[in-house]
Amino acid sequence: MFEVFRKYLSSKANLSDADFERIKAVSVIKKLRKHQYLLQEGDVWRSNAFVAKGCLRRYQIDAKGQEHILTFATENWWIGDRDSLLTGNPAISNIDAIEDSEVVLINKENFDQLCQQLPTFNEFIQTILQKSFIASQNRIYATISYTAEEKYQNFISTRPELANRVPQHMIASYLGISAETLSRVRNQMTKK
Amino acid sequence: MFEVFRKYLSSKANLSDADFERIKAVSVIKKLRKHQYLLQEGDVWRSNAFVAKGCLRRYQIDAKGQEHILTFATENWWIGDRDSLLTGNPAISNIDAIEDSEVVLINKENFDQLCQQLPTFNEFIQTILQKSFIASQNRIYATISYTAEEKYQNFISTRPELANRVPQHMIASYLGISAETLSRVRNQMTKK
DNA sequence: GAAATAGCTTGATAAATGTCAAGATAATTC
DNA sequence: GAATTATCTTGACATTTATCAAGCTATTTC
């Protein structure tokens, strides 16, 4: 599974074989069965996780016990709880596997060292953060300005790989609408 | 006005007098009257802007002509269009002054140089990006999971400096609810 | 300081979306 | 492969929020 990670890295940053070895030395492969937690609310998140295979979600549970999905991550995505990682506080979000998955974990200390030692690595990691932030802002725009149907349309075009991969009630949760509304919206769309 | 910026910087990063001089040399002060644009949709955004005085907002206009506010920035905040800055594409958002304001502008090239030359500067800029992203994710959670009243309550506690400073229809726009609903929510809250 | 504009509130009504319940089908588990 | 569980759909109805319109203040402009 490290090969998937290596292939991803080499497409993003110019790294030598020695660099790859250094990265490999601090990478930990973790296999997850469907429904298995990678992070549970209350625990501290101390790593960066790269998804080599499968699909995971990050979500928070509100006062009424409802889940709200913040992130989906499939192959070649990163996932984690940045808040907990940065502050060291217990996480308020959960991460679990939607499918049997494999992730590459690099703990914070090792990851920071890699960033310091490998400038190209650092650079593309920074770019990911930049792009993630921009995507996050775009999602806010969608959430505050779109109707339910527009939210779903936008989801299909921005995350096409997920539309037929994850259950629809999870897509609904991600979009902030009810599963029933999503079902009706989809029904309407086919009639057009 | 550079003094405000200097004071802010010195509270965030360990910088020498020479460093400050270097920063000052590439800083451009810009004064804005209320309602004046700092960035207009269609133009390319090429700087980082620090708010030394006043209050600005960043917003997008939807297909129906409605404004949706993405960001408020008061003293000691940064504002800009990261998407346009990163990609070089024309901005789809607008930035204008809600009050008479003064901003410190540093263009992209100079800013990147500062980051390369001043490690502590770079470090705290990265931290701001991290925290901004976390805040953005928290806002998504609020937007997809809270009722109108909860959104406003949350706004008051996360952005107390804005609650009595910007018009309420702008707060409503930021929260993704109508101005009338916000008015009613506020009315209800006083009765409790 | 009169006139114009912007901001806020309130009522009446409409529209969008949520909730609850039931049933159908598909997928998973033992 | 039978039983269980998860997923999706649909209907009926409730609730939340939006929209439209009017009026009232406060603020800004000339």
Automatic annotation (TrEMBL), chains A, B:
Residues 36-114 form the Cyclic nucleotide-binding domain. SUPFAM superfamilies: cAMP-binding domain-like. InterPro entries: cNMP-bd_dom, cNMP-bd_dom_sf, RmlC-like_jellyroll. This is Cyclic nucleotide-binding domain-containing protein. It comes from Spirosoma arboris.
